[in-house]
Design a protein that fits this description.
72 residues, mainly alpha
Length: 72
Amino acid sequence: IPRKKPKNGKLSLLEKDYNRALAQERIVIEHVNRSLKIFKILSSRYRNRRRRYAKRCNLLSAIYNYELALGD
């Protein structure tokens, strides 16, 4: 959780550096989430059998990882 600025105060340089480092880590994960939500199975209500949901999520993750490997 990022550090919040106190009321009528300022963040120290250390707290600002912490927030910046945290944001840099989070943005990578947010980009992955966005890429996976392009597949409609993760961005809308899942209407099929529940027991297949985990398998399909794993398949989408595998496809995403495969695309990452192709980009290298």
